[in-house]
């Protein structure tokens, strides 16, 4: 089981990472999150170590790779998906923990555009779409419940409550929709000199 962690709000992430490791997960994280985890004694690798491609373009391209999105989207037990996962070495990502901060409405549209998180919301959408097999976790307030549910299910996502997984997916899509609205608010402002 892989758990991918990519968070702006790092509240509780060390404890969550340690708990996921205790449940047998291999923790994969974006660079800043991985550095925090490792400094706290929680073994973690960076996303590029899993995908085989380092962060590119100053960190603008991190997770866009079939090993990440395939791991989030493939349906366990689906013959064609299982064959693709086997053929291309796509890992089974069972947990995605990802959050991002609304853009500051007072910033300059050009600077805000450069701060737009593209990969995080895309990973959240992928995990939420496949919530039958992947836990999409976007809120630090849910970390303790995630660990408890996985512990009760012996680390098997499919053995957790389907209604709970659906609620996590609904929250995830709500969070990405709010993020998109924050981007719209910033870009809808008149540009300097306009």
TrEMBL record:
<protein>
    <recommendedName>
        <fullName>MGS-like domain-containing protein</fullName>
    </recommendedName>
</protein>
<dbReference type="InterPro" id="IPR002695">
    <property type="entry name" value="PurH-like"/>
</dbReference>
<feature type="domain" description="MGS-like">
    <location>
        <begin position="1"/>
        <end position="138"/>
    </location>
</feature>
<dbReference type="InterPro" id="IPR036914">
    <property type="entry name" value="MGS-like_dom_sf"/>
</dbReference>
<dbReference type="InterPro" id="IPR011607">
    <property type="entry name" value="MGS-like_dom"/>
</dbReference>
<dbReference type="Pfam" id="PF02142">
    <property type="entry name" value="MGS"/>
</dbReference>
<dbReference type="Pfam" id="PF01808">
    <property type="entry name" value="AICARFT_IMPCHas"/>
</dbReference>
């Amino acid at each position: 089981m892989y758990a991918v962690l990519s968070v702006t709000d790092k509240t509780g992430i060390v404890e969550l990472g340690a708990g996921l490791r205790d449940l047998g997960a291999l923790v994969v994280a974006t660079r800043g999150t991985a550095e925090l985890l490792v400094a706290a004694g929680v073994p973690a690798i960076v996303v590029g170590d899993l995908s085989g491609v380092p962060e590119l373009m100053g960190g603008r391209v991190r997770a866009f790779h079939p090993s990440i999105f395939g791991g989030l989207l493939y349906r366990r037990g689906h013959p064609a998906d299982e064959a693709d996962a086997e053929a291309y070495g796509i890992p089974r990502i069972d947990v995605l923990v990802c959050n991002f901060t609304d853009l500051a409405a007072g910033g300059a549209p050009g600077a805000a555009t450069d701060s737009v998180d593209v990969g995080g919301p895309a990973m959240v959408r992928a995990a939420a779409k496949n919530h039958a097999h992947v836990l999409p976790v976007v809120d630090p307030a849910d970390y303790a419940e995630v660990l408890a549910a996985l512990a009760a299910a012996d680390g098997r996502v499919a053995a957790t409550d389907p209604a709970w997984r659906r609620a996590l997916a609904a929250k995830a899509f709500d969070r990405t929709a709010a993020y998109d609205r924050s981007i719209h608010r910033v870009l809808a402002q008149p540009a300097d000199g306009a």
